[in-house]
Amino acid sequence: MMRRIVESWLLLLYFDWLMHFRGFQRVHAVVREQKLRPAAKVQESDRELSHAVDLACVFYFKRVLCLQRSAATAVLLRDHGWNAEMVIGAQLLPFQSHAWVEINGRVVNDKPYISEIFQVFERC
Predict the structure, then answer these.
(1) What are the tens digits of pLDDT across the range 62-116?
(2) Where are the alpha helices (H) located in the chain, listed in sequence order?
């Protein structure tokens, strides 16, 4: 588990750097272009991998944004054979935007009803 937490922490750092220096479009492109790897023989559950990202957020040196967390989660899951999608949505009143990850329409890194609160704008 410690290896997955470190891997997650490094992904958080990478997406933090991308957001700061290259912007949202590059973060979006990296997640969209991440290929799904074939599942390994000993496959970790999506919940274990998502939990590793959550723990990495606790040890990150600053507040982790939902876009950063979701991008890292989607890439980690795809790297371990899960067909994960990062979803970006917004609500109008009060205006808020949010990002989360889904596998086959099931939310894996947020509340299960989050897709009912936000209008989906993008899936990648």
Answers:
(1) 999 999 999 999 999 999 999 999 999 999 899 999 999 999 999 999 999 999 9
(2) 2-21, 24-33, 46-59, 66-79, 114-117
Strand order in the sheet with 119-123: 106-107, 96-103, 84-91, 119-123
The residue with tokens 């936000």 is: 118
Cα radius of gyration rounded to whole Å, the chain: 14
Task: Identify the residue whose tokens are 């220096």.
Answer: 21
Is 75 within 8 Å of 11 (Cβ atoms)? yes
- Given the structure tokens 């994960």, which residue do they identify? 84
Total structural domains within the chain: 1
d(CA 53, CA 22): 22
Domain holding 113, by residue range, is 2-123
pTM exceeds cut of 0.90:
yes
